[in-house]
Design a protein that fits this description.
Shape of chain B: globular
Number of helices of chain B: 9
Number of strands of chain A: 0
Oligomer: heterodimer
Structural class of chain A: mainly alpha
Radius of gyration of chain A: 20 Å
CATH class of chain A: Mainly Alpha
Number of helices of chain A: 15
Helix content of chain A: over 70%
Number of strands of chain B: 12
Radius of gyration of chain B: 19 Å
Largest interface: A-B, 37 and 40 residues
Structural class of chain B: alpha/beta
Shape of chain A: globular
Distance between the termini of chain B: 42 Å
Order of helices and strands of chain A: HHHHHHHHHHHHHHH
Strand content of chain A: under 5%
CATH topology of chain A: ABC transporter involved in vitamin B12 uptake, BtuC
Chain lengths: 350, 259
């Protein structure tokens, strides 16, 4: 298999434009599908007006922000996955698998249990609490990643997996001792979902994702070098520890911002970069903008399955009693888990 | 007569991995244009010395200077414009093409922009052509044979355009054809003015191509000079602890062999 051998402006523009067109097409179609709302009256209303009808409120106040959130969260998770994969030299690395997402969840959960319930759900504070929590697994991984002679790519990933297990168990323990009503809330949030009302959370998360994304885009050359190995990267003129630190921090910021609004959603950062690498190769300068867009498209599609899937099945006559929605975190895990296994088996065979 | 200023100079360098000191107060001056072959038993400290000369490892005592400046205080990109390093082998887990791998040699010259500049692409293509890899530029690095991969790493070093080339066992594990090809590429580079420092296990290859041979044992230099002058059966017998013969032939000033 051969592919165009180097990155040109026209190649970058072509792939980005195509991905954007797909994202826009899906993003405008999905809010129109399903449900018992009158689209005509909904769309006739201006989105910034006080919604005069329930139809308008459902369409502009729930569906549209949800689609935007899916695009944003999916993109951020895919980019974070790509960044961790380069730094840890492992295509299986991903914020959820590595425990970065659970660290972020722990930050928010501790604050909630400590009585900062309002604080933990406040749009401005929540990402900060999540970021504080993510620093725990991040620091461990960063210290390990800096000691290249000591730890192989495999042990780094394993360490992340274990961090995830430890933090998740600790959260279960906390839930065990906590007040039942709070636990219920936490439980639903921890499944990872995109149910959102209004634009408040979006307005907080979008700029964080934009800034961290731009920082990472300027590190894509460094990501290419680091995905060879840190010694080679240093010999090719990279200040390795500084680049690793910058990339991991930016990836953790992305992860924390999205965990704050959507809970820990796994495997987007694994599936999307992997598929893109199969098609376009390993150059992170191309993969990063494409991950941002296709990650959003992937999560949007998964969310659509969970959100409208049961309803559409029931409408088609399937014997389903309950038509409530499935949190998207369950869908992505059901898709991503097997992909992870296949990748693991393939890398073991090599 | 005074010698020209050394391009790299190691002064009383000590280095330990944890409590185990592997280099004991070692000094070495590299003159511009030399081809230094570095040989000695496994564990003698050859690779460690290379890592110190390139500033990747920092000495516990002593200094390594590059054109008079202390190498471990220089920015990595500055060092990379002076020294290109070729590792013994490099496995790449991601599907990079050959051209992409060679273009990474241009990183020390990269600006903020994401795309490769025209001079970068020209340098990479010239390096590929020199190494006979121009037909492979769109091939995935991982699909190449070990010998071809080693050539790609050498092409990347050429693309880096540095006046000093440091190689860790560039021909070990390669078949005779690749050994010949790589050694002649190095000889060409030297004729073009490149200073070369490389480790070898094969003393005959080192003696055939290097202008100066440095023998190491237990973290110290034990011989340093023109290969034919320093290679003797007695020295090598002690160094490797096996019987060896050293003879002169009409075609070769020195030839090392088992008896």
């Amino acid at each position: 298999m051969t592919r165009p051998a180097n990155l040109t402006a026209s190649r970058l523009a072509l792939h980005v434009t195509f991905a954007l067109l797909v994202a826009i097409a899906l993003g405008t179609t999905i809010p129109l599908i399903g449900g018992q709302i009158n689209l005509k009256t909904a769309i006739a209303t201006a989105p910034w007006a006080d919604y005069p009808t329930t139809d308008a409120m459902v369409f502009w106040g729930t569906r549209i922000p949800r689609v935007l959130l899916a695009l944003l969260v999916g993109g951020a998770l895919a980019v974070a996955g790509l960044a961790f994969q380069a730094v840890l030299r492992n295509p299986l690395a991903e914020p959820y698998v590595l425990g970065i997402s659970s660290g972020a969840s722990l930050g928010k959960m501790l604050a909630a249990l400590a009585g900062l319930q309002a604080a933990a759900t406040a749009p401005y504070l929540s990402p900060v609490l999540c970021f504080a929590g993510s620093l725990l697994p991040l620091t461990v991984l960063q210290v390990m990643a800096a000691r290249t002679r000591r730890f192989s790519a495999v042990s780094l990933l394993l360490a992340g997996v274990m961090l995830n297990v430890i933090i998740t168990s600790f959260m279960l323990l906390l839930q065990f001792f906590a007040d039942f009503t709070r636990v219920q809330q936490m439980y639903v949030w921890a499944l990872g979902g995109l149910d959102i009302v209004g634009y408040g959370q979006l307005a907080v998360v979008a700029p964080i994702v934009a800034v961290a994304g731009i920082v990472l885009f300027f590190q894509t050359r460094a990501m290419n070098l680091l995905s060879l190995d840190p010694a080679t990267a240093a010999h090719l003129g990279l200040d390795v520890s500084r680049a690793v630190q910058r990339i991991m921090l930016a990836a953790a910021v992305l992860t924390s911002a999205v965990v704050a609004v959507s809970g820990p959603i796994g495997f987007v950062g694994l599936v999307v970069p992997h598929a893109l690498r199969l098609m376009f190769g390993a150059d992170n300068r191309l993969l990063l903008p494409l991950s941002l867009i296709w990650g959003g498209v992937f999560l949007l599609a998964c969310d659509f399955l969970g959100w409208r899937g049961l309803e559409l099945l029931a409408a088609a006559g399937a014997p389903i009693r309950q038509t409530s929605e499935i949190p998207v975190g369950i869908i992505t895990a059901l898709i991503g888990g097997p992909v992870f296994m296949v990748l693991l088996l393939r890398s073991a065979r090599r | 007569m005074t010698q020209p200023a050394p391009i790299i100079s190691a002064r009383d360098v000590r280095f330990a991995y944890g409590a185990r000191e592997v280099l004991h107060s070692l000094s070495l001056d590299v003159q511009p244009g030399e081809f230094i072959g570095l040989a000695g038993p496994n564990g003698a400290g050859k690779s460690t010395l290379l890592q110190l000369l390139t500033g990747f490892l920092h000495p516990d005592a002593g200094t390594v200077s590059l054109r008079g400046a202390e190498v471990c205080r220089m920015r990595r990109a500055e060092v990379a414009r002076e020294i290109a390093f070729v590792a013994q082998k490099s496995e790449i887990d991601f599907p990079f093409t050959v051209l992409e791998v060679v273009l990474m040699g241009r990183h020390p010259y990269a600006g903020l922009g994401a795309l490769d500049s025209a001079p970068d692409i020209t340098a990479a293509q010239d390096a590929l052509r020199k190494c006979g890899l121009h037909d492979h530029s769109a091939t995935l690095y991982g699909n190449l044979s070990g010998g071809e991969q080693q050539l790609v790493l050498l092409a990347r070093a050429f693309a880096q355009g540095a006046p000093i080339l440091v190689l860790d066992e560039p021909v070990s594990f390669l078949d005779l054809r690749r050994q010949w090809q790589i050694m002649n590429l190095l000889a060409d580079a030297r004729r073009g003015g490149t200073t070369i420092i490389a480790t070898f296990h094969d003393l005959n290859i080192a003696a055939r191509w290097a202008s100066r041979l440095v023998l190491m044992n237990n973290g110290q230099l034990i011989a340093d000079g023109v290969p034919a002058d320093i290679l003797s059966a007695e020295l090598l017998g002690k160094l490797y602890d096996v019987p060896l013969t050293v003879e002169s032939t009409p075609h070769r000033p020195v030839r090392v062999d088992f008896p």
